[in-house]
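ok new one. same drill as before - structure tokens go in, u give me an amino acid for every spot. 185 of them this time. try not to just spam alanines like last time pls lmao
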């Protein structure tokens, strides 16, 4: 698969994204907005608070969705070599993954949201440049992928969308438990 990642030398006037590409990006943007909206008016400390029995916090959810989207976009561009083989992950790898769900010392909500915005921009650029959403790669080794030999770019985008929507729902529950604020209603 060959997809040229846009670079800063390209014109600021990118061609309009249409059709299925546009539909997927528009729906993903809507769910990203829901997730970001749950963090409105929060301090860094509040973004790192656990408000339910879950280990999840708002800042950590945004970090996790950011890392997930970044990794899957790398997969679209590079194939399975862009992701770790689950069977070869070390304790350090699992610890780093667990840190995706927390606000770590020195991290700020603004920084986490900026990183998410940068990943979103990259996703939009990559998807706009994809000539074919059917292009597929073999999946990396992981127990949750057994029986699924490969995913197309379309399937990856649907997965990113599902992850974002699911975690936006988690975030809404966490925010409501924090101070009663809701995304809707």
């Amino acid at each position: 698969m060959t997809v040229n990642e846009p670079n800063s030398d390209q014109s600021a006037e990118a061609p309009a994204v249409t059709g299925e590409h546009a539909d997927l990006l528009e729906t993903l943007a809507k769910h990203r907005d829901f997730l970001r909206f749950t963090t409105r008016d929060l301090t860094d400390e509040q973004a790192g608070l656990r408000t339910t029995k879950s280990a999840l916090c708002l800042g950590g959810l945004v970090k996790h969705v950011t890392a997930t989207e970044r990794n899957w976009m790398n997969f679209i561009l590079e194939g399975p070599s862009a992701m770790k083989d689950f069977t070869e992950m070390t304790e350090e790898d699992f610890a780093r993954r667990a840190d995706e769900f927390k606000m770590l010392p020195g991290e700020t909500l603004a920084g986490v949201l900026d990183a998410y915005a940068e990943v979103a921009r990259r996703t939009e650029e990559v998807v706009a440049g994809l000539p074919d959403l059917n292009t597929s790669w073999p999946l990396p080794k992981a127990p949750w992928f057994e029986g699924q030999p490969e995913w197309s770019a379309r399937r990856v985008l649907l997965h990113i969308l599902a992850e974002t929507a699911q975690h936006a729902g988690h975030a809404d529950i966490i925010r409501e438990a924090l101070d009663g604020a809701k995304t809707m209603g």
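Strands lie at 136-138, 150-152. and btw Residues 3 and 131 are 8 Å apart (CA to CA).
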